Amino acid sequence: MGCGTSVTGSRAKKSERAIKAAILIQRWYRCYMARLEMRRQYALSIFQSIEYAEEQAQLQLSSFFTFMLDHFTHLNVTDTGSDVQLLEYERMIEVPDSYRGPRLSFPLTVADTNSLLHAFKDQQHLHARYVLQLLHETKKLLKQMPNIIHLSTSYSKEITICGDLHGKLDDLLLIFYKNGLPSEENPYLFNGDFVDRGENSTEILIILFAFLLVYPNHLHLNRGNHEDHIVNLRYGFTKEVMKKYRSHGKKILNLLQDVYSWLPLATVIDSKVLIVHGGISDTTDLDFLNLFKRNKMKSVLRPPRQDIAVKGMTRPSSSSSHRRQYTSDLLDVGKHMCLLHDGVNSGPLLEARYLESSVCMPSMPSELTAKEWKQVVDILWSDPKNQNGCTPNKVRGGGCYFGPDVTARLLKRYNLKMLIRSHECKQEGYEISHDGQVITIFSASNYYEDGSNRGAYLKLNPDLIPRFVQYQVSKCTRKRTLHQRVSVVEWAALKSLREKLYSRRSELIAAFRQYDPNYTGRISATEWASAMESVLHLDLPWRTLRSRLVQLAPDGSVEYLSCFNDLEIEPAIKEVQPALVETLYRYRTDLEIIFNIIDKDHSGLISIEEFRQTWKLFNSHLKIDIDDESIDKLARSIDFNKDGNIDFNEFLEAFHVVNKFENK
């Protein structure tokens, strides 16, 4: 008996130790997963903050880019000609016998859509003649549609709703693989932002427009904020079209302006579910939106000549004086670039009364009213927030933040049940907010970086109960462990943030030293965080991020100069004066837009003289003391083949901030 009792007690102790061990392992695992989730969330926050800051810069500089388009008309031909002229132009384009891609005939059939899908899977391009014909037919069809589409479900089918695709063809193909191709039995709604950022925006547009022509009652498209020709200049679609269709790219881009302007603005399902790309505001009026002539809105970045900044587009605040100065600098650069490029004195066109961005902006056609413009801006650019009320969206620079009370009032006013929108990358591909009344759906997986987010689409049945389907396109992602996936995303986010730090190095050091009058090289974590936010305006958790960006002293203070210690520019131009490198890097995205506008044939080449004169202007207006010899040295170092021209794509790559120790 005693022996049996001893054995039983031993087993009990072993069991107790095993339970304690299991509890410890479970606690460790939960902490481990919580840390991973925190890292993943702040990485996504970094990516989003930088993205929205770029959008804000684009909106605040819209007067400058609009001026450039107005005076370099090869990208601003709003009249594409009559249908007869367009058809004649299309007929003049010959399709050579050597062309192995799809050959389309109109009206399109299901066989044509299947041919396109197979061709794009094999990385073929559709010939320019067929692209123009497709756009022409799409425009004719869209013109017959109302501003707000009304759909209904039945007991035999669901409607599939997809969010942003942003040129990610693999995501679209995966959606079709998992959910089936569009058809009468399988209707789809794509909620805007088909283009920009990804490499296959052209193919996505072609596929969606082709299915629209085959199934006009069963495939539907809403306009997004990236269906905008000026936005496309910054985010890659313009460059993609010109690269793929160099000879006819301008005609395609010009025709696309019209196609964009005829895209419907919203969709209502079963009179209960409203679907718009961005969101709503406290002044959104669906009745008004349904009546005005939507094709007047060629670009959100070209509002009427009225002082509508208070209600619509956010202007730089007093804390953003550098942006106001930057706008002025770019306007002056634009003036001199006109003189350099055209060889005529067009200076009077740039008088301050016309270009002063803090007062008014260049006009769209006079028929567009301020109310029409604001109504469209709000539904294309707005985002939901958790707090009640409606406030300007200062993070993006356009639209508003709308709270649960704004949603509830609009739904009650129009007897609606739910608002579905897109416009924001979500880690899981979707998000439910405002007590279930607002759904965000985002369909571009790996949007910022491989593994950064899932994509999703939703299926809406007659009961109006959404069913979400998630996915992630990436062979590499599946092969990595969770820790590896998070580490890759985190590294990419921090790399992007470090590049931002480098581009504002001088301003950051000045802000740090306001808290360090004795030049000790150290400030408190709170002071460091305040200085970072005052310069970068990214609204990030800087105290959480400080251990990843700077070295900490033993007393917990921040050695603020250490955030630049491991950053350098690619070796090709390291000998160039640091102040010039920093300036070029800060403005490289906007420079690309400027040169895209000036470079009429989109060859990517600019003359060394043009480069030299441009940067002399930047010197004088940005008050940076850089001598002519440094600029010449920079120009010569970039002109690798010594032909007197600079490959601007290589120029952008040259100004690439890297981590000195990343290879180690």
Automatic annotation (TrEMBL):
Belongs to the PPP phosphatase family. SUPFAM superfamilies: EF-hand, Metallo-dependent phosphatases. Its EC number is 3.1.3.16. GO terms for biological process: detection of stimulus involved in sensory perception. GO terms for molecular function: calcium ion binding; iron ion binding; manganese ion binding; protein serine/threonine phosphatase activity. Keywords: Calcium, Hydrolase, Magnesium, Manganese, Metal-binding, Protein phosphatase, Repeat. InterPro entries: Calcineurin-like_PHP, EF-hand-dom_pair, EF_Hand_1_Ca_BS, EF_hand_dom, IQ_motif_EF-hand-BS, Metallo-depent_PP-like, PPP_dom, PPP_phosphatase. This is Serine/threonine-protein phosphatase with EF-hands. The keyword Oxidoreductase does not apply. It is an enzyme of class 3 (hydrolase). It catalyses: O-phospho-L-seryl-[protein] + H2O = L-seryl-[protein] + phosphate; O-phospho-L-threonyl-[protein] + H2O = L-threonyl-[protein] + phosphate. Residues 503-538, 586-621, 626-661 form the EF-hand domain. Its cofactor is Mn(2+); Mg(2+). The gene is PPEF1.
